[in-house]
Amino acid sequence: MSIHNHQEWLTSALGCYLQAREQALYDAAVSDIFGFNALQLGMLNADFLAHSRMPFRCHADVNDGLVRCESSLLPFASSSIDLLLLPHQLEFCDNPHQALREAERILVPEGHMIISGFNPISLWGLRRLFARNKQYPWHGRFLSLLRIKDWLALLGFEVVAGRMSCYLPPLSKPSWLNRFQFMDKAGDRWWPMMGGVYFVVAKKRVSGMTLIRPHWNNAKMKRGLMPAPSQKTLSQKTQSQKIIHEQ
């Protein structure tokens, strides 16, 4: 699939609907995450870092952006990024698990990663199964939210927030999209796991700690760490000394 067709789909009625829904989700999420360095990887038609408060914000993609790179091989130092956005990257890369490993590598401890992807258990997933022309985005490998969460857990991430979005059927005509607007309003209540897109916020957790062992000293043990004698023991000792003195 060419980049031209990819960008063309994102400017279509359905593509604009997708970007508008995701823009609102990203804007709300990134505004509450603090740090220094933020990176958006892919889908550069939309600036999902627009509401981020981080001073350095970088946009990268395979053929566009400030940095050109693959998601499975990122040219960034380990533990250098505070916030990483992966909008629809995992379903279109050859090795999504390697992409997540790279994301874990470049994130600082307690850094955040936000992932959005197409949900296979939805009307969008059905459209992909029955699509005759496998153009963007129907040629991608839609990954289930459960699988994404399993991979994140294996890499030491904690999912701190998440939700579904885009409950409308993936129709190309704007008139039909407007006709089904009620599904977006009722989706979170009546079919919450059937959204066309999932949105996950994960935090990198670093397990393990260095135990500080005490340096034991025999003199201190004798002087301050030995148990104090009880009143009964003191009384017996005093009575013994008194008997010895009388003898």
The main sheet comes to: 7 strands, mixed
In round numbers, the mean pLDDT is: 85
- The dominant shape is globular
Assign the CATH topology: Rossmann fold
CATH class: Alpha Beta
Tell me the count of domains: 1
- Secondary-structure element pattern, one letter each: HHEEEEHEHHEHHEHH
Please describe the structure with a list of short key phrases separated by commas or semicolons.
247 residues; alpha/beta; Rossmann fold; seven-stranded mixed sheet; globular
Write the layout of secondary structure elements.
Blueprint: H1 3-10, H2 13-30, E1 37-41, E2 56-61, E3 67-68, E4 81-87, H3 96-106, E5 107-118, H4 123-130, H5 145-154, E6 157-165, H6 174-179, H7 182-190, E7 197-204, H8 218-225, H9 231-246
Q: Can you put this structure into words, describing what you see?
A:
The protein contains nine helices and seven strands, in the order ααββββαβααβααβαα. With 247 residues, the chain is an alpha/beta fold. The chain has a single domain, classed as Rossmann fold, CATH 3.40.50. A seven-stranded mixed sheet has the order 3-2-1-4-5-7-6, with helices on both faces.
